[in-house]
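#struct-help
A.M.: can someone run this one for me? Single chain, 167 residues.
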Amino acid sequence: MTTALYPGTFDPVTKGHLDVLSRACTLFDQVVVAVSEGNNSKNTLFDAASRVRLVEENLGSYRNVSVESFSGLLVDYALKKKASVLVRGLRAVSDFEYEFQMAQMNRHLDSNLETIFLMPNEKYFYTSSQLIKQVHLFGERETDLVPENVLTALREINRSNRGEDQN
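D.P.: on it. Structure tokens below:
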């Protein structure tokens, strides 16, 4: 049985993430969406528990997927989960350099851990969680790039922030 980890911050999860996940589910026996609890270089909008919940609420009929948060080195978490594959999404050429460096370091740390790059549907090539946050936190535009539960969560934060600003 092949277990794959699909790691990321997922802050928030987008339809592009879910598209890559659906592709991974057809390739591997078990896929663990590994939600990073965060690091000093990324300020997250949602806490880890909320990000796990937002992903879980979009699993639908996937029977071979679980969602967990983790901290520390990904290679250590992969060993703990007995995963032999890391799944990473590549949207555009600009992702490649960073992802390549990460894959090479992970291979250096654990030569048995392979990284597989999957491309999402072309309508999600330019979708990133960072762009989603910028658009949705400054208004209530519909982009059709996030699942409904994420859109609701972003709108709640937006309304909360506006309420704080009015005081």
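A.M.: thanks! The longest helix spans residues 148-166.
D.P.: also worth noting: The chain is about 45% helix and 15% strand.
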